[in-house]
Specification:
The complex is a heterodimer of chains A (about 270) and B (about 1300). By secondary structure, chain A is α/β, with parallel strands linked by helices. Chain A is about 55% helix and about 15% strand. In chain A, strands 2, 3, 4, 5, 7 and 8 form a six-stranded mixed β-sheet that branches. Chain A has a two-stranded parallel sheet with strand order 1-6. The two termini of chain A are about 20 Å apart. In chain A, about 50% of the residues are buried. Residues about 165-170 and about 270 of chain A have low confidence and may be disordered. Chain B has about 1300 residues and is an all-alpha fold. Helices cover about 60% and strands about 0% of the residues of chain B. Chain B has 58 helices and two strands. In chain B, strands 1-2 form a two-stranded parallel sheet. In chain B, helix 2 (about 15-30) runs parallel beside helix 18. The longest helix of chain B has about 45 residues, at about 950-995. The termini of chain B are far apart. The N terminus and C terminus of chain B are likely disordered. Classes of the chains: A alpha/beta (about 270), B mainly alpha (about 1300). The interface between A and B is large, with 68 and 78 residues. Chain A: InterPro entries: CDIN1. Chain A: Keywords: Cytoplasm, Nucleus. Chain A: This is CDAN1-interacting nuclease 1. Chain A: Pfam families: TPD (PF14811). Chain A: It is found in: Cytoplasm; Nucleus.
C-alpha cells in the first residue's frame, strides 16, 4: 500500500490523539476505509513509537512507577477480573505492554528484593504462566494481547514479516560469517530483476516507510548495502509514502509486498 | 635532373615545388648518403613545416567551414610568437637572441637562395659545404628586398575566416620558389634530377624516407642529443653557402641582425623569419580550436601557461655548444613567453570581436576568436566547378607533395591534415572571392611568387579531391558514416568521378559501423570477503573505519552525480572538507591501501566505458530522455543521435587531454583530498594494475583453420576491454605522477634548468620506457602505445625535457615515423592507424614541446629490431576495429561532423543519395526475445557476476569459449562428416554416369546438404547444453551454492551456444562445401561413420516440486489469531463476537501457512504455537464468544459441538503441521485452566474431549496429563470449581486407566501418580 505524503500526514494527525488499542485501530479503519488494515496498523505503530520515545522517560521515574503499581494493586483488590492494568495504561497514555512491564518489574522487585533480570521479564511477558501471581499473569497477558504496537506478539509478527523471503537468498547470519561489514537481510547470490530493475539484496522492513524512518534507513543501511552489493529492494510490508520511492534509477527500489514481476537470469519465474 | 632543371627554369612554380619536394626526399632516399649530404636532411625537416604553413596560409581565406584552422600550424604559431616577441623584445632581450630570430627570418625570406644552393649538385658533392637552414639563409639576409620585406606575400596579411585570424604571414611556397629562377643559375638546378618521373619517384622515395631514416642517421655516428639536435647541427655546419656571397654571419652585428623591433623595417623582416622556424608545430596555435580547447585542461591550467619548447633547446644545447643555436633557443623562448602572456590576457578578455582585421604591416597582438565557429550559414555556398580551376598543374604537384608527406608520416598528425583537406573540400568560398578570370594568366615568376593558388573554392576543392584520392587508403578505413558523407559529397562526385565511385563502393562494402555506446549506470564495487573482511585489517577499529569510509565515498559520489552539472556547484566547496575529513581518518588507521584499491576499482568500473572515459564523438544521451523513451526505443534513439551531428560541436581534431564524464569526479577527488599518502598508494595501485594488464596474454593460441573467426571475436573483445582500462589507468597515473610539477605559470629558464637537473636524478614511477621498448620488441605496441600516450599526455612542462622522458618521446616519434600505413603482415592497418592517431594527438598536446616533431633526432632511440618472432604477435592480429579506433580517438569523429555540417549548410542533398542497404539478417537461433528482455537479461548477467568473485566469471567465460570451440569441432567431426558421406554417395553414382560438369554437380550436391546443415545448430546447442554444465561443475569450488552454480551453468551454456551456433550459422554452408569438395576430389576415401549425437537431456527444474509458496503469510495469520485472543481476553465491546466460520477458516489458513515452510523460523513458530494453545484454552473454557452461523439451520446438533470441531482442528495442527514443539502442557497450567474457572459455564465435556485428543494425537502421555491434573488440584481454586476439576480428572483417568499402558507406555516413566489419582477418585 503506497500512500501519498498528504494521505500519510492526515493519518498521522489523527493518530496523535489515540491509544494503541484494538478499539483505536477500529476507529482508524472506519476513518480511513480505503487503507489496508496492516498499513494503518503499521503507521499506528510507528507513530505511537515516536510518541513513546518522547514520553518514555516520564513513565519510568521512580515516582511514576510507584504510582502505577499502587493503582494496580488497588484495582485488582477491587476486582481482579477487571482489565485494571490495561485501563491504567490507557488512562496515563502509555503502551499497555510497556505498562505491564513496568508493573511486572516492580512486582518482582518486591517479591525478590532485587532488580529482576531483563531475560526473566521478557520470558514472563512471552509466557505469562511463568508469573508467580495468577492475577498479574492475566493482567499482563491482557495487556500484551491488546497492545497493537508493542509486546511479544507484535515482535513475533514483525519477525515473520521480515522472514518472508525467497530461496535464492543467503541469510544474514551466513553473510556475517563471511565477514561482511554490513549485511542486508538477504543477499541474492543470483540477482533478479524486479519491475525491470536489477536487485542484489532485499531488506525487509516490518513497518510503514515514513519519511523519518526511511531517511534513517537510507543513511544507515540501504546506501551501505548499495555501496557493497549494488542495487537492491526494500520491502516495507506495511507500505510507504510513495514519494520516497525516488531512488529506483540509482538502485534502491521500494515495494510494499513481495514483488511479482520478477525476471530471473535465463528464465522468468512469473510470466506475464 | 636535367629536365627537372629545365622545367624549373620555365619558372612554373609548381614544378619548382615538386622539385623541392623531390629534393627533400632525395636526401634521405639514397642508401649511402654522403657525409656532407646528410646535413641536407635538415632541410627536409624544415620543409615539411614550411609546406604545411604554406597550405594553411594559402587557404586561410577560403576556409569558412567548420572550426578554425584545423591546424596547429607551425607557421601560424611561429609567426605569432615572433611578433609578440618582437614587441617585447625591444625592452629587454639580449642581442644574441634577437639575432637568432633574425637569422631564421632571413633564412626564410630568402629561400630562393636556398633553393638555389641546395639544388646544386656541386654543393652537394663538392664537400665544400653542407647546407643547413641557417647557412642557407644567411647570405640572403644581405639581399635587401629579396622576397621578404615589402613583398605582400610575406607581409602580415591577416586572413580572417570567421573573425579568426590565421597566420598572417602569407608565405607562399610557390612564390619564393618561383623567385628562384632569377637568383639561381639554371644549369645547376637542372642537374639535380630528371623531371620525367618526378611524381612517382617522389612518392616512392618518400616511402623509403621513413624507413631509411634511422639507419641512415645511425650511420652518422653523431651523438644525438635532443630535439634541438637539428638546430645544433645546423649551427655546426660551416656557414658557407656555395652560391651566395660568402659573407660570414655576424650574429652580433646589430645591423645585420637587429634585435626584434629595434630596427626600422624590422617588422617586415622578422615576419618571414617565422616561416622556417624549424621548431614549428604545436606551440601556440593561436587560431586553432585546440588551443582554445586547452582552456579546459585538467588542472585548470591557464591555456597559455605552457612551457615553451624553446627553452628546452636552450637547456640542452647551450651547455654543449654555447653557440648560436642555444642562444636562439632562448630568444625564442622569451618571445613565446611574451606571446603567451599576451594570449592569456586576450583570452581573459573573453574574445575579441570577430572579423577583426589587422593591419598587415603592423605587428599587432594576435586576435582571438572563438574557433568553434559555425559554418557560415549566411554565406552562400559557392558551387565548386571543376572547369574553373586555375593552375591545375601546381595544385596537382602540391597535392602529390602533400600527400607524400602525409603518407610518409612526415606530418605531425595525419588526421589533422585530413581534417584540413576536408575543410578545403567543404569550404564555402568567401564573399570576397572573385570569379577568377585569369585562368590563362601568364605566370611570370613575379606572379608566381605571390600567386594565391587557393584563392577560390574551385582550386581548394580540386586540391582537396586530389589529396583525398591519394589518401584513399586511409579514408576508406574511416567509419561508415564518414564514408557515406564522402560518397555523397557532390564536390567529389563532380571533381573526380573515379574517386566518387571508389568511395561509394567502399561505403557499400564497409562494415565499420561505429555506434554510440550508452552510458553504463554507476555501480558500486562489490564487497569481496577475500580482500575486504575483518581479517584484512589490523584492528577492529581500522575495519570499522574503513566500513564508514566506503559509505562516505559513495555518498560523495552520489552527491557529485546528482549535482555536478548544476550551475554553481563547486566540487571543492561542497565536497572538499568531507573528503579531507575522510582522508584524515584514513591516515589515522593506515587504511590507504584499502581505499586506494576501492578508488581504483570504482574508477575502472565507472569510466572504463567510452562514455565515462570521455564522451565519444556523439554526446551522451541524456538519461532522462532514455528513461522516457524506454529501453525499446533506445536503439532508435541511438541511431537518431548518430545522425544528429551538430555543427556547433565541431571541435577540431586535436582536443586537449581532459577528464570527461565520471573521470572528473576522480580527478577532483584526488585534488581535493590533497593527500600525499593516498596519492602514493594510488600510484602504487595503478602501476600494479597497469603492469598486470599490459602483460596479459591476450592471444593465447594459434588457431586451427575454421574457428579462427570465432576466437578472433573474443580476442578483440578482450583486447578492447584491456586497452580501454589501461588507457584510463595510465591517464590517472600520468595525472598523479606529474601532478606535483604542474604549474600555472611557466617556469623561467633558470627554474627549468634547475628543475631538470634535479628531476633527472629521480626514478620514474613506472618505467614506461622499458615497457615501450619491450612492447616494440614483442610486437605488442598496439596495446602499449595507446596507454603510454595517455600517460604522457598529462606531462608537466618540464618532464619532456628530462633525460628519461626525452628518450620515451624520441622512441615514440621514431615509431611514428616508421609506421607507414599499409597493409602488411607485421601489423594490421587499423592497428597502425590507431597508433598513428594517438601519437599524432600526443604531439599536439600542449605540454609536449613543439620542437619534438620536427627537430627530434630520431636516431637517438634505436628501435629494437630483433623482434621476437611469434606467429601471433599482438601487432599482427587485426585487433583494432573502427569502433575501438573511434572510441580511443573520438576526435576522429570531427571529420564526419565537418562533412555533415557541410551538407547541413549547403541545403542540398540533405538526404543523401546512397540508400541504406540492410543486409538480410542471418537466421537467428532462437526466437529472439524483445529488446527489453534481452537488455534485462544482459544486465542481470552482469549483475550476477558483479558480486561474485572474479574467478567465477573467468571460469564461465573460459568454459564457454572452450565448449563453444569444441562444439564446432564436434559438429565437424559428426554432422559434417555425415553429410559429406551422404554427398559422397550421391556423387558417386552421378560421377560415373556423366562425364559432365563437375562444378555443377558439386553445387547441386551441396545445395541439397545445406538444408541439413541447419541441423548443426540444433546439435550444437545440444552439445553445449550437455558439456557446459559438466565443465562448470568441475571447475567451480565444491562449496558453490546451487543457485550460483545453476546460473553459472546456464550462462556458460548460453555463451557457448551463442559462440558455436553463431559461427556455425555463418559458416556451415562454406564448411560443408569445402569438405564435400575435398571429398569429391578424392572420391575414394570413405569417412568414418558419423556418431550419433547425444539426446537432449531432460530439463532441469529450477523450482522444487509442490509448494508454490502461495500460503497466507504467517504474519497475517498470527495477526488474526491475536485479534481473536484479544476479543477472548477482553475487554471487549458490547456484543462483540467471533464468527465461527471465520475462525474455522482461519485455522485452515494456519494449516496452509504451516505447511509452506518457506517463511517459517523456529522462534516465530513457537510463538505461533503458543497462541494456538492459548486459543484452545480459551475455546474449551468457553471464553471465546463464538457466533454460530445463522445459516445451515438443520444442523443444530452439530453446531453445538462446534467448538469441539475447532479444538479437533487445533489438535491435528499441533500434531501434523507444527514443526516446533507445541507447549501443550500450558493447557493444563494454572493460568489457562483459570480461564475455565472464570467462565460462566465451563465446557467440561469439551475439556475432556481435548484431553482425549491430546492422548490420541500422541501430544501428551496419559501419565503426563494425569500428573498435570493432579498438580492443578493443588492450586487454590473455588471449592465448586475444584470439584468439577476432580470430576474431570476422574473421568479422564477412568477412560484411560486401562488403555494407558499398552500404546503410550513406550516412552513413559513408571507412573506412581495414576495410582494416587485413582485412589483419590
Amino acid at each position: 500500500m503506497k500512500l501519498s505524503k498528504a494521505q500519510y500526514d492526515e493519518i498521522a494527525q489523527f493518530l496523535a490523539q489515540v491509544q494503541p488499542t484494538r478499539q483505536s485501530l477500529r476507529q482508524l479503519k472506519d476513518k480511513f476505509p480505503s487503507q489496508s488494515q496492516s498499513t494503518l496498523l503499521s503507521i499506528f505503530s510507528q507513530e505511537y513509537q515516536k510518541q513513546v520515545k518522547r514520553t518514555h522517560a516520564k513513565h519510568h521515574t521512580a515516582e511514576a512507577v510507584e504510582t502505577y503499581y499502587q493503582r494496580y494493586l488497588n484495582g485488582v483488590m477491587k476486582n481482579a477480573a477487571a482489565p485494571v492494568l490495561l485501563e491504567l495504561a490507557n488512562e496515563v497514555d502509555f503502551a499497555p505492554s510497556l505498562m505491564a512491564r513496568i508493573v511486572l518489574e516492580r512486582f518482582l522487585q518486591e517479591q525478590e528484593h532485587a532488580v529482576p533480570s531483563k531475560t526473566l521479564i521478557n520470558s514472563m511477558l512471552r509466557d505469562p504462566s511463568q508469573i508467580p501471581d495468577g492475577v498479574l499473569a492475566n493482567q499482563v497477558y491482557q495487556c500484551t494481547v491488546n497492545d497493537c504496537c508493542y509486546g511479544p506478539l507484535v515482535d513475533c509478527i514483525k519477525h515473520f514479516i521480515n522472514n518472508s523471503s525467497c530461496s535464492l537468498c543467503i541469510a544474514e547470519d551466513q553473510l556475517r560469517a563471511k565477514g561482511y561489514d554490513k549485511t542486508p537481510d538477504f543477499i541474492l547470490e543470483v540477482p533478479v530483476a524486479v519491475e525491470g530493475h536489477i536487485i542484489h539484496w532485499i531488506e525487509s522492513k516490518a513497518s510503514f516507510g515514513d519519511e523519518s524512518s526511511h531517511q534513517a534507513y537510507l543513511q544507515d543501511q540501504f546506501w551501505s548495502y548499495w555501496n557493497r552489493f549494488g542495487p537492491g529492494l526494500v520491502i516495507y510490508w506495511y507500505g510507504f509514502i510513495e514519494e520516497l520511492d525516488c531512488h529506483r534509477e540509482r538502485g534502491i527500489l521500494l515495494k510494499d509486498c513481495f514483488p511479482t514481476d520478477i525476471v530471473t537470469l535465463r528464465h522468468s519465474m512469473a510470466q506475464h | 635532373m636535367a629536365s627537372l632543371h629545365a622545367r624549373t627554369q620555365t619558372s612554373l612554380s609548381g614544378i619548382t615545388e615538386k622539385s623541392l619536394a623531390l629534393f627533400t626526399f632525395d636526401i634521405v632516399a639514397e642508401n649511402h648518403v654522403h657525409e656532407k649530404l646528410v646535413s641536407l636532411s635538415l632541410l627536409q625537416k624544415d620543409f615539411v613545416p614550411f609546406l604545411l604553413n604554406f597550405l594553411r596560409e594559402q587557404t586561410s581565406q577560403i576556409l569558412t567551414n567548420g572550426p578554425s584552422t584545423p591546424a596547429k600550424t607551425p607557421n601560424s604559431k611561429a609567426h605569432g610568437n615572433q611578433r609578440t616577441g618582437s614587441e617585447k623584445r625591444a625592452g629587454h632581450t639580449s642581442g644574441s637572441s634577437s639575432s637568432r630570430v633574425q637569422l631564421f627570418s632571413e633564412r626564410t625570406s630568402v629561400t630562393p637562395c636556398t633553393t638555389d644552393t641546395s639544388f646544386s649538385p656541386a654543393a652537394a658533392s663538392s664537400g665544400s659545404s653542407s647546407f643547413s637552414g641557417s647557412s642557407l639563409s644567411s647570405p640572403c639576409s644581405d639581399l635587401p628586398g629579396a622576397a621578404c620585406g615589402g613583398s605582400p606575400g610575406f607581409g602580415h596579411s591577416p586572413v580572417l575566416g570567421q573573425g579568426e585570424r590565421r597566420s598572417s604571414q602569407r608565405s607562399s611556397l610557390g612564390s619564393f620558389l618561383a623567385a628562384a629562377p632569377e637568383a639561381a643559375p639554371p644549369p645547376r638546378r637542372g642537374r639535380r634530377r630528371g623531371g620525367s618521373s618526378v611524381g612517382a619517384a617522389g612518392r616512392h622515395l618518400a616511402r623509403d624516407l621513413g624507413r631509411s631514416l634511422p639507419e641512415e642517421e645511425d650511420g652518422k655516428g653523431e651523438s644525438p642529443a635532443s630535439w634541438s639536435a637539428g638546430r645544433r647541427k645546423r649551427s655546426e655546419v660551416p656557414l658557407v653557402p656555395a652560391a651566395s656571397p660568402p659573407s660570414q654571419l655576424n650574429l652580433n652585428n646589430l645591423e645585420e641582425f637587429p634585435p626584434m623591433g629595434a630596427a626600422s623595417g624590422w617588422t617586415n623582416k622578422s615576419k618571414p623569419s617565422r616561416r622556417i622556424n624549424p621548431t614549428p608545430v604545436s606551440a601556440e596555435r593561436p587560431l586553432s580550436k585546440p588551443k582554445m580547447c586547452f582552456t579546459s585542461t585538467p588542472v585548470s591550467q591557464a591555456p597559455a601557461a605552457r612551457f615553451p619548447s624553446g627553452t628546452s633547446l636552450e637547456a640542452f644545447t647551450a651547455i654543449q655548444e654555447g653557440n648560436i643555436a642555444s642562444v636562439v633557443g632562448s630568444s625564442l623562448q622569451e618571445e613565446r613567453e611574451m606571446l603567451k602572456k599576451e594570449r592569456c590576457k586576450l583570452l581573459h578578455q573573453a574574445s575579441s570581436p570577430s572579423g577583426l582585421s589587422l593591419d598587415p604591416g603592423t605587428p599587432t597582438k594576435p586576435s582571438y576568436a572563438r574557433s568553434a565557429s559555425l559554418p557560415a550559414e549566411s554565406l552562400p555556398v559557392t558551387c565548386a566547378n571543376p572547369a574553373k580551376v586555375s593552375c591545375k598543374k601546381q595544385l596537382e604537384c602540391l597535392a602529390q607533395l602533400y600527400s607524400s608527406c602525409i603518407a610518409e608520416n612526415l606530418v605531425p598528425n595525419i588526421f589533422l591534415e585530413l581534417f584540413f583537406v576536408l575543410q578545403l573540400l567543404t569550404s564555402k568560398g568567401s564573399s570576397a572571392e572573385d570569379e577568377e578570370s585569369d585562368l590563362e594568366v601568364n605566370e611570370t615568376s613575379e606572379d608566381a611568387s605571390r600567386k594565391q593558388h587557393f584563392r577560390n573554392v574551385h582550386n581548394c576543392v580540386y586540391f582537396a579531391v586530389q589529396v583525398l584520392d591519394y589518401q584513399y587508403e586511409i579514408i576508406s578505413r574511416l567509419e561508415k558514416g564518414t564514408l557515406k558523407l564522402l560518397a555523397e559529397n557532390e564536390r567529389i562526385a563532380s571533381f573526380s568521378p573515379t574517386l566518387h565511385e571508389r568511395l561509394r563502393q567502399a561505403y557499400e562494402s564497409s562494415t565499420a559501423k561505429v555506434s554510440l555506446l550508452l552510458p553504463c549506470s554507476v555501480q558500486s564495487v562489490s564487497f569481496q570477503p577475500e580482500t575486504d573482511n575483518r581479517s584484512n585489517f589490523p584492528t577492529d577499529r581500522a575495519f570499522h573505519i574503513f566500513k564508514k569510509q566506503r559509505d562516505i565515498f559513495y555518498e560523495l559520489l552520489r552527491e557529485w552525480e546528482d549535482n555536478h552539472e548544476k550551475t554553481g556547484w563547486d566540487f571543492e566547496r561542497v565536497l572538499g572538507n568531507k573528503i579531507r575529513a575522510m582522508m584524515a581518518h584514513l591516515s589515522a588507521t593506515c587504511n590507504h591501501s584499502h581505499f586506494a584499491r576501492l578508488f581504483q576499482k570504482q574508477l575502472i568500473q565507472m569510466c572504463k566505458g567510452p562514455i565515462g572515459g570521455g564522451t565519444s564523438w556523439g554526446d551522451t544521451p541524456d538519461q532522462d530522455v532514455l528513461n522516457m523513451l524506454g529501453p525499446d526505443n533506445l536503439s532508435r534513439l541511438k541511431r537518431l543521435q548518430e545522425r544528429f551531428v551538430v555543427p556547433q560541436s565541431i571541435g577540431g581534431p586535436c582536443p586537449p587531454p581532459s577528464f570527461t564524464g565520471c573521470q572528473q569526479f576522480f580527478r577532483d577527488f584526488i585534488l581535493s583530498a590533497g593527500s600525499y599518502q593516498f596519492n602514493q598508494h594510488l600510484v602504487d595501485s595503478l602501476c600494479l594494475k597497469i603492469l598486470e594488464l599490459d602483460g596479459l596474454t591476450l592471444i593465447e593460441h594459434v588457431h586451427s583453420d575454421g574457428e579462427a573467426d570465432m576466437d578472433e571475436q573474443d580476442e578483440k573483445k578482450r583486447f578492447t576491454v584491456v586497452l580501454l582500462s589501461l588507457r584510463l589507468l595510465a591517464k590517472f597515473l600520468g595525472f598523479l605522477v606529474f601532478l606535483p610539477y604542474r604549474s600555472m605559470e611557466q617556469p623561467t629558464r633558470d627554474l627549468l634548468e634547475s628543475a631538470v637537473a634535479l628531476r633527472n636524478k629521480t626514478q620514474p614511477a613506472l618505467d614506461v620506457l622499458k615497457l615501450l621498448r619491450q612492447s616494440i620488441r614483442d610486437r605488442r605496441a598496439v596495446l602499449t602505445i595507446p596507454w603510454i600516450v595517455e600517460f604522457l599526455s598529462l606531462v608537466d612542462h618540464i618532464a619532456p625535457f628530462l633525460d628519461y622522458y626525452r628518450k620515451v618521446f624520441c622512441l615514440l616519434l621514431q615509431v611514428y615515423r616508421l609506421m607507414v600505413l599499409s597493409e602488411e603482415k607485421e601489423m594490421s592497418f587499423l592497428n597502425k592507424l590507431l597508433i598513428l592517431a594517438v601519437l599524432g594527438w600526443l604531439f599536439q598536446v600542449p605540454s609536449v614541446p613543439e620542437e619534438l616533431f620536427f627537430s627530434t633526432d630520431v636516431r637517438k632511440e634505436g628501435l629494437v629490431t630483433d623482434t621476437v618472432t611469434s606467429p601471433r604477435a599482438l601487432d599482427s592480429v587485426p585487433l583494432v576495429d573502427q569502433q575501438l579506433l573511434y572510441t580511443c580517438c573520438p576526435y576522429l569523429g570531427e571529420l564526419r561532423k565537418l562533412l555533415a555540417s557541410f551538407v547541413a549548410g549547403s541545403g542540398t542533398k540533405n538526404g543523401g543519395f546512397i540508400r541504406k542497404i540492410t543486409p538480410t539478417a542471418a537466421e537467428s537461433l532462437a526466437p529472439k526475445p524483445s529488446a527489453t528482455q534481452r537488455k534485462l537479461q544482459a544486465e542481470l548477467e552482469q549483475a550476477f557476476f558483479h558480486n561474485q568473485p572474479p574467478s567465477l566469471r573467468r571460469t564461465v567465460e573460459f568454459v564457454a569459449e572452450r565448449v563453444g570451440s569444441n562444439c564446432v569441432k564436434h559438429i565437424k567431426a559428426t554432422l559434417v562428416a555425415e553429410l559429406v558421406q551422404r554427398a559422397e554417395v550421391m556423387l558417386q553414382d552421378r560421377v560415373k554416369e556423366v562425364d559432365a560438369n563437375h562444378d555443377k554437380l558439386l553445387e547441386e550436391a551441396c545445395a541439397q546438404l545445406y538444408e541439413e546443415g541447419a541441423q548443426a545448430l540444433i546439435r550444437g546447442r545440444e552439445f553445449c547444453k550437455k558439456k557446459g554444465p559438466e565443465a562448470v561443475r568441475v571447475l567451480l569450488p565444491e562449496e558453490t551454492s546451487a543457485a550460483v552454480l545453476n546460473s553459472a551453468e546456464d550462462i556458460a551454456v548460453e555463451l557457448a551456444t551463442e559462440k558455436a551456433c553463431g559461427w556455425l550459422s555463418a559458416n556451415i554452408a562454406a564448411l560443408i562445401k569445402r569438405e564435400v569438395k575435398a571429398t569429391f576430389n578424392r572420391m575414394l576415401k570413405v569417412p568414418g561413420p558419423p556418431q550419433p549425437s547425444e539426446d537432449a537431456q531432460e530439463l532441469r527444474r529450477a523450482c522444487p516440486p509442490g509448494c508454490q509458496h502461495r500460503a497466507p503469510l504467517p504474519s497475517q495469520v498470527i495477526n488474526e489469531i491475536k485479534d481473536v485472543l484479544c476479543v477472548a481476553v477482553g475487554p471487549r465491546d458490547e456484543g462483540e463476537v467471533i464468527d465461527y466460520d471465520w475462525l474455522e477458516s482461519l485455522l485452515g489458513r494456519l494449516r496452509q501457512t504451516l505447511r509452506c515452510r518457506k517463511f517459517m523460523c523456529p522462534t516465530s513458530e513457537q510463538q505461533l504455537a503458543k497462541c494456538t494453545v492459548e486459543l484452545a484454552s480459551l475455546l474449551v473454557s468457553g471464553g471465546v464468544p463464538l457466533r454460530r452461523s445463522p445459516a445451515s439451520p438443520g444442523r443444530s446438533a452439530e453446531r453445538r459441538r462446534a467448538p469441539g470441531g475447532l479444538v479437533a482442528r487445533l489438535l491435528s495442527l499441533w500434531k501434523e503441521d507444527f514443526g516446533a514443539p507445541v507447549p501443550v502442557r500450558l493447557l493444563l497450567s494454572g493460568r489457562n485452566v483459570a480461564y475455565a474457572a472464570r467462565a460462566q459455564r465451563p465446557q467440561w465435556d469439551l475439556f475432556l474431549f481435548m484431553l482425549r485428543g491430546l492422548v490420541e494425537h500422541d501430544l501428551m502421555g496419559i501419565n503426563e496429563i494425569v500428573n498435570c491434573l493432579h498438580n492443578l488440584k493443588e492450586l487454590p481454586w473455588p471449592s465448586d470449581f475444584l470439584k468439577e476439576l476432580e470430576g474431570l480428572s476422574g473421568a479422564f483417568v477412568s477412560e484411560h486407566g486401562a488403555a494407558a499402558a499398552p500404546p503410550a507406555a513406550r516412552s513413559e516413566p513408571p507412573r506412581p501418580v495414576p495410582g494416587a489419582l485413582a485412589a483419590q477418585s
